[in-house]
Amino acid sequence: MFAFALLLAVVSFLPCQAADYRAGVAKVDITPKGSVWLSGYAARTKPSEGVTQKLWAKALALEDGKRGRVVIVTTDLIGLPRSVSDTIAARVAKQYGLDRSRLLMNSSHTHSGPVVRPNLMTMYFLDRGQTDAVEGYAQKLVDDMVSVVGAAIADLTPAKLSVAHGQATFAHNRRNYNRPERGGPGPVDPDVPVIAVRAMDGKLRATLFGYACHNTTLGGDRFQVSGDYAGYAQAELESMQPGSVALFMLLCGGDQNPNPRGTPELAHKHGRTLATEVNRVLAANMKPVKPELKTSLMNIELPFAPHTREQFLAESKDKDKFKVSRAQKMLRDYDESRPIKSVQYPVQAIRLSKDLAIVALGGEVVVGYALRAKQEFSGDLIVAGYSNDVMCYIPTLKVLKEGGYEGRDSMIYYGMPGPFTEDVEETVFQAIGT
Q1: Does the N-terminal peptide bond of residue 118 adopt cis geometry, omega within 30 degrees of 0?
Q2: For site-directed labelling of 95, which of 146, 177, 213, 358 has its Cα 20 to 30 A away?
């Protein structure tokens, strides 16, 4: 395993001759067939009623000419649970010989896509038919994800990569929004990283781009399947660049919301804004990416603050049905002598060149992680959340101490016992820098 310190010891941009990768790209429609319960909002009262926008899984395979290969998969989904991503990775390793550290799976976190069990199950109270639909979707999703990885690998041909950055400003920090007691507007990250993949004749084949903002333009009063602003951004960009595939990565947007939000028109608007900015970057001077692939994946333990069976016995009598659901789950764990004390957390790094690295973190990572990482490590660093396993929110120490939804309350819906210990941020950064 390559050390993270080596992977992230990126240097300032150096002049280099354009060097060839081999790249392959593929996409598969993962839109639910029929009605299914949509994820992300506890207030929903019924399953989906039609599709306004198809959902996609897209894969970008890269080889550096030295037998180094990585595959980056993006999905228009709320998030992939570890049980799903591990199953996909095991099949990909068996069928295509791809080491686990070389497969990155990121989710857009659309709140208008299907439930993907078992994450967030404390939030839902599904009948047998709805449960069968959700389980059937997950089974087909695994097959689709494995197939799109294989299709991207089969598509490998000589290519050139380049990178540049734009900005978008429709995200705001929802923790500080209209909260003057928290010191006014909170931190945001307007960065829009753009990686272009071009054929040897210069034709654009794929664009990998990201932004740190929740896909929650559409609210819980909507029951149609949609990729939200990220889905519209990808479709718009593919329209602007015919014949290419646009892949969206959600960055550290755990505490970021679109502003304004609430209507399909606004989802279109934000998607168009993002696509227009990416298209502008593609037409500007982009820096060539000299191929040098290296990867690492670590699974670390993030401990929860101490809790007791008595705590959840009291919570089981609460008037809040979601707290009761979480308490019942915790009590079962206690009764079976396996109370949850920590969560296994994936930290992945992919270095595409000496100048460019992607850090992929699990969970709903708040923006402070990206801002700190880009201060502490030199060079061009893309920091993504929502990668490989979306098990719960990952707060900074500041957010944890403040409490609120991202620091504490969201754990109810994720079926976790409570907040993390106060060393959560340092534990993650120790892994990044090891």
Answers
A1: yes
A2: 358
> Under DSSP, is residue 174 helix (H, G, I), strand (E, B) or coil?
coil
Write down how long the chain is: 434
CA distances from 34 to 42, 44, 412 (A): 21, 17, 29
Dihedral angle over CA of 317, 319, 325, 327, nearest 10: -40
Alpha-carbon gap, residue 236 to 246, rounded angstroms: 9
Neighbours of 96 (CB within 10 A): 18
Closest CA to 109 of 186, 188, 246, 213: 213
Task: Find, among 369, 350, 347, the residue nearest to 297 by Cα.
Answer: 347
Q: Judge if the upstream peptide bond of residue 260 is cis by omega within 30 degrees of 0.
A: yes
Give the whole-angstrom CA distance, residue 136 versus residue 357: 36
| Confidence (pTM) | 0.94
At CA 415, angle to CA 414 and CA 418, rounded to 5?
95
